[in-house]
Design a protein that fits this description.
Layout lengths: L5 H10 L4 H46 L4 H48 L1
Helix pairs in contact: 1-2, 2-3
Length: 118
Amino acid sequence: MASNIPIYDQIAHQTGSRRFDKVLLALFARGREGNRGDEKEYGKMIEEIEVRVEHRHAILLELEKFGSYQIMNEPLDRFKLAQQEDLDEIAFLTKRRQASLRRATDKSRIIKNLRMFK
C-alpha cells in the first residue's frame, strides 16, 4: 500500500526498508552529503578566484612601475575595481561555504540521534 508521501515511497524502495527511522536516516544522509559537496564546490570556486586575484595583483604591480601616466589611470582604476569585486566575491563564497558546513553539521547531529533511536 502506497503512502500519501511519494518521496517516502521512493526512498523506502531505494533503501529496501519501510521503517520510518531508516527512511529518515537515508534522507538526512543525502542532505548531509549534498551540503558537503556544496562546500567542496565553494572551496574550488574560492581557489580559482584567489588565483585570479594574485595574477591581477602581479599585473598591477608591473603596471604601476611604469609611473602615473594620464592614459593609464582609467584602465588601472578599472583593474583595481575588478580586483575588489573578486575579493568581495571571495568573502561571499566563504560565507556560503561556512553555511554549507553548518547545515552538514546539523544534519550529522540528526543522523547521530536517529542511529541511537534504533
